[in-house]
Amino acid sequence: MMELFFKPKSVAVIGASTNPKKDGNLILQNIIDSDFSGDIYPINPSADEVLGLKAYPSVKDVPGNVDLAVIIIPAKFCVDAMRACGEKGVKAVIIEAMGFAEVGGEGTKLQEQIVAIAKEKNIRVMGPNCTGIVSRDITTTFFPMKDVPQGNVVLIGQSGLLAAAMSSDLVVNKSLSINKVCSIGNKCDVNENDLLDYFGDDPQTEVISMYLESIADGSKFVPIAKRVAAKKPVIFLKGGRTEAGARAAMSHTGSMASDTKIVEAAIKQTGLIKADDFTEIKDWAKVFSTQPLPKGNRVAIVTAAGSVGVVVSDICAEHGLEMPKLSDVTIERLKDVFPPNMPPSNPVDLWYSIEKLGLVKTLESTLAAPLEDPGIDAAVLILAGMKYTMPVLDDKTVQKITAKYKKPVIICMLVGYNEYKNRIMEELGKDLPVFTSILSGVKALSKLCEYGIRRHKNAS
Questions:
Q1: Across the chain, which distance is largest between two alpha carbons, in Å?
Q2: Distance between CA atoms of 272 and 446, rounded to whole angstroms?
């Protein structure tokens, strides 16, 4: 049944509007602009056509089958729309209207009626109070969305932010290889268990990030999450961890926030990767989707500033990463690019070599040699937003080195001029994880190493 949400052969938009400022118009336009090749049926009792497509007064009037219906009308009319879907034989519905359990009172009663109809007619419902799906195959959000990539990352969230603003940010800026984004809202029916189970078996999905304000059924969630996390990284952000957050969750999606201690136990039991904010579920997905899994936690630091090497070393140690000595072979390889009175060590200090050879030639030795060292599992590379860094972008030096040695590298960028920093973020950041914070970068790498160690241990 989940397949009908993501690969339907026909879709009806109940509430399709001729007004380009209305959500019903934007949703219809997004479906048209996607790669969806099935039949599209605008439902509008006051229009003959919408966006060049023949419109119908009711979903029941559509001449063909309808696999998926997207409902974007006021909440008080949604119950009748659900009944019409049931009579038509629609088996998947996304309700994007607000005004249900999240507002309480009459809204809760409307949601209960929708659930009753769904059970009676065997309909799966996503939402209400959601923004649906973003994907190359079909996009139902009301944010303008074009050219969604066919990537390897799925975002699942009890948040319209994910399937709207954040998706738009990621798609337009090409900063994350999105495959699908699912906004599940109040979770009156389809919930995280359904989607986690589905994407766990989806061959296109390699990384899953989740934001939840509640766990629908913990007894089902734990075994599903444990199974999926054993073969794919699942990054998990829980909203409503505090009393203040729990109150906000109730007014946002009508969710009773799950007990924090129970959630923490579930994370440990399942192997989920716990994030603390939206930036982390996005940034960590970038790291996991672009970098190979390391077998250990031994890190080399490559930097042009000694003080930065000291701070990065501290942060690595605080996050469970080791800073081993370089092997004799690696030290021998690096001697030519270091002054006689400063033997190579870890952190690897680049400045002398940069002045002597330029950054491209320097990295070909000082980044490549540690990555070739069998005692090193990963590297942190510090770059500056300066003119001397630009040849590295033009030559794709870092990409070539990381492709050759197949060990994870994260880049941290601390100082520089905006014109150069922006180029690093936009150009290098398309292929590799680039952070403007050492702490954020090292924390992400520590999660990758932790997961990599566990995966390799379980495989042996």
A1: 84
A2: 14
> Which of 14-28, 175-189, 252-266, 391-405 is predicted least confidently?
252-266
Choose the CATH number for 3-288 among 3.60.60.10, 3.40.50.261, 3.30.1200.10, 3.40.630.10. Answer: 3.40.50.261
User: With left for phi above 0 and alpha for psi between -120 and 50, is residue 15 left, alpha or beta?
Assistant: left
Task: Locate 224 and state its tokens.
Answer: 């599903």
pLDDT at 343: 85
Strand ranges (DSSP E) for 22-65? 39-43, 49-50, 53-54
Q: What is the C-alpha to C-alpha distance for residues 65 and 11, in angstroms, rounded to an integer?
A: 9
Does residue 5 register a pLDDT over 90?
yes
In this prediction the pTM is 0.91
Domains 3-288 and 292-459 share a fold: yes
**Over residues 254-266, mean pLDDT:** 65
Instruction: Work out the end-to-end distance of the chain between its first and last CA atoms, rounded to an integer number of angstroms.
Output: 36
Omega of the bond leading into 128 within 30 degrees of 0 (cis): yes
* Count of Cβ atoms closer than 10 Å to residue 445 Cβ: 29
Separation CA 170–CA 310 (nearest Å): 33
Q: State residue 373 phi and psi, 5-degree precision.
A: -65, 125
Give the containing element (helix H, strand E) for 63. Answer: none
Q: What is the DSSP letter of 73?
A: S
The backbone torsions φ and ψ at residue 384, rounded to the nearest 5 degrees and listed phi first, read -110, 145
Domain-wise residue ranges, the chain: 3-288, 292-459
pLDDT of 82 strictly over 80:
yes
Q: What pairs with residue 300 in β-bridges?
A: 379
Q: d(Cα 167, Cα 184) in Å, to the nearest integer?
A: 14
pLDDT for position 251: 44
Higher pLDDT, 356 or 295: 295
- Mean pLDDT across the stretch 410-416? 93
Summary mean pLDDT of the chain: 92
Mean pLDDT of 124-133: 95
Report the C-alpha gap between 257 and 264 in whole angstroms: 13
CATH topology of domain 292-459: Rossmann fold (3.40.50)
Rg (CA), the chain: 25
3-state secondary structure of 455: helix
Is the Cα torsion angle 43, 48, 49, 54 positive or negative in sign?
A: positive
CA dihedral 77, 79, 82, 86 (to 10 degrees): -130
Q: Where are the beta strands (DSSP E) in 280-324?
A: 299-303
